Amino acid sequence: MSNTQFGTTVNSVGIARLAGVGRAAVSNWRRRYPDFPDPVDGAEGSPLFDLAEVRAWLRRMGKLAADESPDAVVEAVWNVLDPLREHLDGVDAVALLGAALAAREEGADLAALPEERLRDRLLASLDVGAPPPDLPDAAPLRRVLVDAADRLDAVGGAPDAFERLHQRYLTSVSRHFFADTPEIGALMLRLVDDSAATVLDPVCGTGTLLREAARRIPGVAVLGQELDPGAARLARVRLLLAGARPDIRCGDSLRADTFGGPAADAVVAHPPFNQTDWGFEELNLDPRWRYGVPARKEPELAWVQHALARVRPGGTVVMVLPPTVASRGSGRRVRRELIRRGALRAVIALPAGLTPPMGVPLTLWVLRSPENGSAPPDGVLLFDASDGRADDSRGEAARSWPATAESVVSVYRAFTKAPESVAESPGRYRVMSLADLLDEAVDVSPGRHVRRPGLDLDSLADTRGDLLRLSEDLAASLPGLRPATGTLHQAMTTLGELNRMGGLEIVYRRSGDDPGEGEPSLPALTGEDIERETAPSGRGRLDEHTVRLRPGDVVLPRIARRPVARVVTDEEAALHGTTYLLRPDPEVVDPWFLAGFLTGSGACAAAASTSRPGVTRITELRKVRVPRLPLADQRAYGVAYRRLTEFRRTLRRTTEVGDRLWWLLTEGLAVGTLRPENGKEA
């Protein structure tokens, strides 16, 4: 592969993508503009151009935004890595850039390092005990890595910038490393003792849980094993960039464990589910099966026992498991021993969509390796957080995962100190005695044992009244609309054009603005908040760089199930990294008109890509199209859109209250508080 071919070059299609135009426009520019960059390689019919020269020309001609968003920069870096991905597996191309960033963080000058030292430095960061990737020639490799690293510097420090690239990588692959969400990682690590000096993940994927451990526990040593060598290498460089002390090894933890014996103070893991070939035959007599040999159909209980065998006495294990592990008949004997000997401490039912696989309501198992000579505790905490509620009610404000997670942590910590002090919360949690759990089924599913609360008749009456009032408001909130005649909206413009003429400002949030532990912060409006029309649920760092939202701002999610925009009214909140912010001049662009057309199905089509079924990512905000209308007409549309927004909010509230009333009536019949009219007592 020649240096030029492997250098930072781009073809006509790539130039068109950078400028947001068709390929014919690029051909036209080459003919019209004598200063258009000359080809540096390629055939006559498919020339290659120097990417840096092309970008400079596009920017000079006003065809490329100088203030590119962090997402756009990361997308550009992703394209810069194209030649590497032709030579290496995609995960190794990303890991290699991470290794280069880690070397730069340690003070290395990538452009000046001798070739052998550069290769040695990169391979040392990628060393996970597996054969190293076959690196391309040093000179073109250096050019790509330096170019990509320089670009990432523009969107914040190396750790934050690389995390953006890691997320971009995850959207590109069909194979699935269990890339846990920050929400589940934070909860799992909060259930671990803060004094843990060593944390192990025996199936670490790309290192998300270990990165959370390094973030939450100062000075912790992180250990990980991963079957896929590329994922293991990526995990190692992510942890290096996070300032951790990683020991990541490649291999099958069940069949070829590299950390023999108790190696950690805590184990966190999200093992693969329903493995059919996990080593049942060859591991039948394995000494790790202290609680019974796992059945062939119980690979998850093999992972549980592996984790207990690798944690020191008294250490904590927190694992994400499918709900069926708590009740399958084939696992009854192992569950019985885990309970009888005091290893199982808590089972927490989680809401679906909290972490992959998104369609399954998973569970967290919290276990402790019994200390020698200690009596088993007389109780297991069962917590039902499957609906993400913060309390025992089922109102619209109850579905707050942060508050639910806080409740899980506080109840679990109280339980570990004094199990007898944790009183039952009907419908939420309950401490079950070992004797009650050790029945024939040995079922530890929270939903089976957490008793439903009784019906509050006052709440029933209030809910019925709320529904009747909302039904009246719903009819009154519909705007008056009439059929249009003729063809409308023939004249269109783009957000980029409105920005250039001063009609609106496009505001991007800096990367790295998420607050750390104890740092000043304020609420931040996330993309999910916009989509769900809820209050700000994120947090934004409070400093001189904070982008505060103002009344009249228009915000929209970067990624959503469908296009949606929201006009800021009076929220005291910051811009979140998952959202775009448009700040229109109300004398040029009506904000409600703008938000309404951005919510329409066609406005974002030219600026969006589909990263997975049913999910749209807006990648080129400036290409979003809206009608070009006089301000008076905009305001008329704005009034209609505002009424429609109120109608939708009232409709949602009506649906939520109706759903609550349905649940209260159904529950009342089930528990015997209500009975049918003219019916007999059950």
TrEMBL record:
InterPro entries: DNA_methylase_A-5, Restrct_endonuc_typeI_TRD_sf, SAM-dependent_MTases_sf, Type-I_RE_MTase_Subunit. It comes from the Bacteria. The keyword Zinc does not apply. GO terms for biological process: methylation. Gene3D superfamilies: DNA methylase specificity domains, Vaccinia Virus protein VP39. GO terms for molecular function: DNA binding; N-methyltransferase activity. The keyword Transferase applies. Keywords: Methyltransferase, Transferase. This is N-6 DNA methylase. It comes from Thermobifida halotolerans. The lineage of its organism: Bacteria, Bacillati, Actinomycetota, Actinomycetes, Streptosporangiales.
